[in-house]
Amino acid sequence: MSELTLDNLIDDGNYFASERARLENQVILDELERKKKARNLAVPTDDNKVKARLREIGEPITLFGERPPDRRERLIYVLSQINAARGDDTMQVDEESSEESSDDEVEEFYSPGSLELLEARRFLAEYSLPRAQKRVAQQRIDSKMPLGRILDIRKKVFAEVKRFAELGSQIGDERPVSQVRFSPNSKYLLTGSWAGNVKLWNVPECTPVRTYRGHNDRVGGVAWHPEATKTLGEDAVNFVSGAADLSVHLWSLNSETPLATLKGHADRVARVAFHPSGRYVASASFDTTWRLWDVATQKELLLQEGHSKEVFSIEFQNDGALCASGGIDAIGRVWDLRTGRTAMVLDGHVQPIFGISFSPNGYQIATGSGDDTIRIWDMRSLKALYTIPAHMSNVSDVRFFYADELPPNYTPSTATPDVVMNGTEEANADVKPADPEQDKVLEEWRYRSGLYFASAGYDGFVKLWSADDWQLLRTLPTDGGKVMSVDLSHDGKMLASGTYNRNYQLFTPDGGI
Q1: Inter-CA distances, 396 with 54, 300, 486, Å
Q2: Residues whose CB falls within 8 Å of the CB of residue 195, separated by 6 or more in sequence, listed in order
Q3: How is 124-185 classified by DSSP, letter by letter?
Q4: 154 CB neighbour count, 10 Å cutoff
Q5: Distance (Å, rounded) from C-alpha 377 to C-alpha 392?
Q6: How many helices (H) and strands (E) does the chain have?
């Protein structure tokens, strides 16, 4: 099967917009429309009048065990069905009920968008479709893995995770360290603090490299460009930061002053995130909005409303099609960047959502909240899958483990088959694997991505959890009363946490490298 693009998307027989799916969706929409019209029907509330109306239309006046409210609901249903069969869209309504319904009804509205936003949405669709197709193809291969092999991988990976111990602690700044993030090559650590500084550190040595000064208030979030420290030059935009001075800064690695400042927010900027393509940046703010920025032009592409209170957390899905936001209103929302619509509402927490993270599998989301719990959401079923009573105080951050494309010190085998788009492997009977052990290492590494995640809490602990049965693997104490952020390196060898007492800690398996 060829690579999925916008041009051949509509011709894909497996896509949900097939004729059968459209018919099923139309049935659902028709039923919703019928129920909407049924709510406007003028139906008597007196039980004797309800019975008389039922007798008039030839229906039983009562059913076994039926109560008066149930009888009235049955009358509404029957009348709506009769009107629908007649094709009568103008149902009789009394003036009072129509006025009330018009007051209560919330009409869907659209905001005008720029041509730049339209082009961005098209690019996001073209970028995300083949990535999603490749991910699903790999998941189909993983689903055929023998159960014994899966258990062996889990046992090996979790045994390593359970050995995590503190390697060292370093004073990060003059005020609390609000966020920590490992570089894509896992050789640097970026810290943002309430002092307004962003600092770059060598890891695991914990030695300072450079201090970036540009904010004059608390830094709320930092995020790396996906190709920073890899293929991206040091003079280009390598990372982004947001702060309480209402600004978002774009930084290079070799300059202590920002390359550009993105202004538009009306209140404190909390978390920030880089899109997987590296073209866009998202920022969450206390002005109840999150915004999408173009890195190349430094223009605001999208001002997204939808939260009733401050927006704190923001994160992109690895495919690049979706974005998730978490607010002080205890609600999370998943946005489809290609259309601008809400794909899912994460409604279940009773306190603010401080941390949000997409699983590498693309359809699960973890949210950490001030109600001390972590909720796991499944986008396929559009509901919460599991609730973890994670910490004794606020869950400030959650991070899934995202593995590099290749494991550390891996030498690619010349005969390793590539993943193709139909979920099978290219087979060549004339070629034998050059190194079967290396192929097993690669298989294990691919399966490891997203197999566990980390959480930080205001109870002073960092915890590691399995991402298949949601069980606690390891509890790591820190030297701070409140852990404000946590991150896992892409090579799987390090974990970092930032604390309220101005320090950051580094953890490794067995406390060594």
Answers
A1: 58, 28, 9
A2: 173, 174, 175, 218, 219
A3: HHHHHHHHHHHHHHHHHHHHTS-HHHHHHHHHHHHHHHTTEEEEEEEE--SS-EEEEEE-TT
A4: 17
A5: 21
A6: 8, 28
CA distance 395 to 354: 7
Strands 373-378, 383-389: pairing is antiparallel
Place of tokens 């979030």: 221
CA angle 179/184/186 to nearest 5° reads 80
Cα distances (Å, whole numbers) of residue 271 to 115, 299, 353, 357, 426:
27, 19, 12, 12, 42
Handedness of CA 475, 220, 355, 185 (dihedral sign): negative
Residue 42 tokens read as 């003028």
123-137, 425-439, 470-484: range with lowest mean pLDDT:
425-439
- Three-state secondary structure of 242-263: EECCCEEEEECCCCCCCCEEEE
pTM: 0.78
What was the pLDDT predicted at 107?
54
Q: 3-class SS at 240?
A: strand
3-state secondary structure 348-415: CCCCCEEEEEECCCCCEEEEEECCCEEEEEECCCCEEEEEEECCCCCEEEEEECCCCCCCCCCCCCCC
Average the pLDDT over 387-408 and give the result: 92
Secondary structure (DSSP) of 289-349: -EEEEETTT--EEEEE---SS-EEEEEE-TTSSEEEEEETTSEEEEEETTT--EEEEEE--
Could you tell me which residues come within 8 angstroms of residue 10 by beta carbon, excluding any fewer than 6 positions away? 17
Tokens 């390793």 -> residue: 416
DSSP state of 7: H
DSSP state of 236: S
Which is nearest to 221 in space by CA: 307, 281, 266? 281
Strand order in the sheet with 269-274: 269-274, 280-285, 290-294, 300-304
Prior bond of 204 cis (ω within 30°):
yes
Average pLDDT (417-436) is 50
Q: Which of 320, 198, 332 is nearest to 255 (CA)?
A: 198
Compute the C-alpha angle 216/220/221, nearest 5°: 115
- Tell me the per-residue pLDDT of 71-103, one tens digit each, with 9 for 90 and over: 888 888 888 888 877 776 544 444 444 444 444
332 closest CA partner among 374, 393, 300? 374
